[in-house]
Hints:
Blueprint: H1 2-23, H2 34-50, E1 57-62, E2 67-72, H3 80-94, H4 98-106, E3 127-132, E4 135-143, H5 148-163, H6 178-187, E5 189-192, E6 200-207, E7 213-216, E8 220-234, E9 237-239, E10 242-245, E11 248-251, E12 253-255, E13 258-263, E14 267-270, E15 276-292
Antiparallel strand pairs: 1-2, 1-4, 3-4, 5-6, 6-15, 7-11, 8-13, 8-14, 8-15, 9-12, 10-11
Amino acid sequence: xxxxxxxxxxxxxxxxGLAASGxxxxxxxxxxxxxxxxxxxxxxxAEAKAKSAPGGVIAVVDDGGNLMxxxxxxxxxxxxxxxxxxxxxxxALFKRPTRFFEELINSSGKGRTVMxxxxxxxxxxxxxxxxxxxxxxxxxGVSGAASAQQDEELALAGAAALANPMAMTSxxxxxxxxxxxxxxxAKGAVLVGEEPGRSYMVHASRREAPGLAEVxxxxxxxxxxxxxxxxxxTGGTVVDPKTTAPNEIRGASIRDGxxxxxxxxxxIIVPSGTPHWFQQVSAPxxxxxxxxx
Length: 293
């Protein structure tokens, strides 16, 4: 019995040892998601706005240097996109801010100019690794702001937003007094528009007559009817569709859609990509629209 007990204990110890040895060969790895990449860009864009930057291109790559997202601000020179991607890739693959390499190459007595010949290497200030819980999950690069220093400041703001979500620049609270809201509905107006870091818009909408069929490829419409009534068609096929703006399609009408009668107090949610059409309205038809992206 004692021998059997020793054998059991020895077997258990060996099993635990093998398990520990096996687990040491596998490490948990964090991965940058598209949502995370978009958050990095939104924070960098918000920082650019706060600093009144004249332009800029923000690029985000994963830890392998593969491009995940890029955004070019108005007024930025076209080549800025390639430069920002190069900065982001360098920061991610070498796990260092690109400032380190520019200063190393330029430093007196120990300049490593030969490094500039490396593939996928952009030794220009403005690239920063994205670090989460001590792991490099990607890189962010910025080019085309007012200066190399500002490029880096925007990149740092983007990286910080993912490493510490509380560090992301907060949007201001929006308040509209009743008189301002009434004025908006009197003519139809946007209360909260699209801006960096915001994923929704709010419209005080007014209709006096039927409109065109619409498809928003990015935005979901959340509609609350304030007053009036309308015949509303959703789904089906847009007749004679035309792209009128980025991610926006308009058409003459809808064929084979579902018809509903909307009245005061009703709420309807139209997912992105779904055709919809105010076929008839009893004027004035007033409604809030929250566009969620």
